[in-house]
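Hi there. Long-time user, first ticket. I'm pasting a complex I've been working with (about 1007 residues overall). I'd like to know whether the download I got is complete or cut off, because the file seemed smaller than I expected. Thanks.
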Amino acid sequence: MIPLSWYLIVAALLFGIGVYGVLARKNAVAILIGLELMFNAVLVNVLAFWRYLQPTGTAGLVFAVIIFAVAAAEVAVGLALFIAVYRRFGSSDVDDINLLKW
Amino acid sequence: MVTTFVFVLTAAVMLVAALVAVLKNNLVHAAMGLVVTLFGTAVLFVLLEAYFLAVAQVVIYVGAIAILIVFSIMLTRRVGADWGQQTNATWPFALLVAGLLTVLLGLMVRGWAAVTAQPASQAVPADMTARLGAALVDPNGYVVPFEVASVLLLAALIGAVYVAWGGRKAEKDAQG
Amino acid sequence: METKILWLLPLSPLVAFALIVLFTNRNRALSHTLAILSVVLSWAGSMFVFWRALQVGAEHLAEEPFHEVVDWLPIGDGFFRLGVQLDPLAAIVLFFVAWTIVMIFIYSVGYHNFGQPEGDHDEKGLPPHGATVVDEHGHKHKVPSIEPMYSRFFAFVSLFAFGMYLLVVSDNLLTLFAGWEIMGLCSFLLIGFWFKKPSARDAAIKAFMTTRVGDVFMLLGIAYLYTQVGSLRYADIFNPETLHHLATHPAPVLGMSAAGLIGLLLFIGTVGKSAQWPLHVWLPDAMEGPTPVSAMIHAATMVSAGVYLAIRIFPLLAAAGHETAFTSPMPIIAFIGAFTALFAATIAVAQNDIKRVLAYSTISQLGYMVAAVGIGAYVAAAFHLVTHAFFKALLFLGSGSVIHGMEHGVLHTGQHIDPQDMYNMGGLRRRMPITFWTFLIGGFALSGFPVVTAGFWSKDEILSEAFGLGHMGVFWTLAIAAFLTAFYTMRQITLTFLGRPRTEAAAHAHETPPTMTGPLMVLAVFAVAFGWLGVPEHFPVLGGLLPSWFQEWVGATFHGLIPEHGELTFSYFPLTVSLVVALGGLFVGWLVYRGVQRADQPDPLEKVLGPVYGVLENKYYFDELYSYLLVKPAYWFAAVFAFRWMDRTVIDGILHTVAHLSWRLGHFLRNRIDLPIVNGFGDAVAEGTKGAGRLLRVVQSGRVQHYMLMALVNAVALLALVYYFVIRS
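Hi, the file is complete. Here it is re-exported in full:
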């Protein structure tokens, strides 16, 4: 069987890639893409722990379900905000959305 | 044996697709990469015997969220414009931080004794999905987070509609 | 009873002074009434007390004088006590002081032309110039006008009377000194009465300053006496034990005993106040004041105070003179007295102003009295003091009458001549008979005309004592001075009254009103009769007819306190000399001056004396000498040393330097410390904060990814820590 650590490493790698995407991309949607990658990594992590440590309980699964719901809600709202911002600024480059700077 | 092979293959595909998702300037290509990654995650869920969630993954993530992302990309670009450089100036620092994070996480995983344990001797019960459903509505179970999540989705729905709609209205006012 | 009156005697004129100054200044009649009333009250009180003293008798009064003491100033565990006292000496002095003051006050009413109209352009501070009056025919006459500062005069002389009465009734040297100084003040005020005349102002300052010199030494004497005795009351000083102690105790200077030094210092006060050489210079200039002032201050009372003091401290001087181990002050006193007598008499011979002659005469006569004290004949000195007060006051008031008459003539004729210059007078005998006869009596008294004048008896006594005690130098000096006295007196009378008027003003002079001639007559009576109270027993023919009351009276005062000397044997020699010099001087004076016929004629003496006459006329140039030696250096000291060098250069220099240094310090503190350090610190804090802000706010780029980056950096760091410390262990 596959050791738990493999899943965790994969999740970690996925998470790292997601972090890079969030930090290093200009377009807001690209950032959201990175964010989704991070979410997925978390899901993998949760389910791996569920399967290997407590497969008969439902806690892990419920956790994952809730994560789904939250992620979905978040993406929806985030994209709606991004559309509104795009209309306001005329640009999809997040570096231009810096009105709250000093 | 087979599972190991499938796992390794799936992991590799996922990671490559994830890299595509974060590195390509063409955002549509990035979105496609995301989709592949999401599919890969679904496969991993199957390997972890969380069948319901695998399906939910495909339906929700690929079917809704990824589509949504693609829609946003389409709606927010001028037709025919060049994508341009999509990586901002601080990318080395981001790389460093991400790398450090990954390394640290990895190290933590390796140093954690309980983690290297073999999979549990227990098997996943056959009616896991039914149990999940029962747990979600059980008052002694997880009904509260379930309901809260539903309220959250409602709020998100209304909010998203309002935010996106209000902007268009304002635009119309400005024009008219 | 008597002591209560003694307290009130000085009080009466003081009250008059206060009332006049505060309330009645504008009302001339009320002012002079108040003043005269006050001195009449004091006179009445004085006569009552004197009569009571006569009743008590000399010896008893000397043992138990009328006295009353109060505790005045708390000192240590006791009190400084002072009070009033009347012993025989004080009683007789009180007698003549009371009479002369009253006479002078009454005289002043007429002198200051009370009842006359206000002057045409008289101003306060200048003598009155006369008023134009239109008579029934429409003719304009100029008549004498009333003194503008009439009330002020009476206020001042009232204050003066207060001072003199205070001096006479006091029982201690402190109130004596107080009265002394009050009189000095009034002397200043009255000499400078016509204050808009620069000569009067200068004369007032000169008088005050010169007497001040004497007063300083006197105060030193009083202080020294107080340290030795512990009290200033006569009763405490003049008793055998204290006198013996003072006479045997050595003083720090001059090889004198304490008594001698004290006596000498107090005597220097007398030198100042009684205008003895070398402090005589103020008295002639003091003639700038109105004539009643001259009479009062410089004949009857103030200068007499100096001699009174000398006689009062005679026991001290005698004790000091008796001890042969120490230097005695008596020869010094005798020398100064005799020298002054002769010195002043020589100057009087060459003076043309009627009052100046009398001034120098006063100095000379005071010299007689001082010399008498110096040789030990204090009774003779007291006798001459009293007679001199009467006849000198008479002479001054008489001269005032003459001047008044002359001024009337000047106003009438419009001639601008000096009414006081004797050469402008002449023949006033017919125009002003009362003045003439009283002045003649006074002049003869001054000259020592035998038997019928008081001056003869007192002067003769001094000469007899000098001869009898063997002080030949003093005797001959005083004899020569007596000759000169008679000479210049006759000169004065001849030039003023005899012969024919030498100017139109003299021809139009007329007699002065009764307020002025009345006092003259009263004083003339005393000038004649008083001498008969002191006829010595051994006098040929007349001696024994009348008791020598005066000698017994005053002689009892100090009995037991002075070493007695035996009775002097009578000798005809001093009597003969006295007669010769008096009659001879009068005759020679008449002889020389009866031929003066014109006002501008040179003095006959000029031919005789030649250049010496100039020296005499210029008073031996003493004023110029003092000016050169003392006044100019004092002025230099004030103007140059004190003002220019010390005050402006040194003190102001210090001030300016301090100010400058303060400014520099302030400047330094401000610019080098306050601004850079204090402000700098504050500014640095602010600027630092701003700089830090400027640096740190870069973090707020507004870009979410940066924020996320920073959050993740922290997360990584935390994770690393957790890994290192938790997971690895």
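A couple of notes from our side: The longest helix of chain A spans residues 59-89. Chain A has a mean pLDDT of 90.
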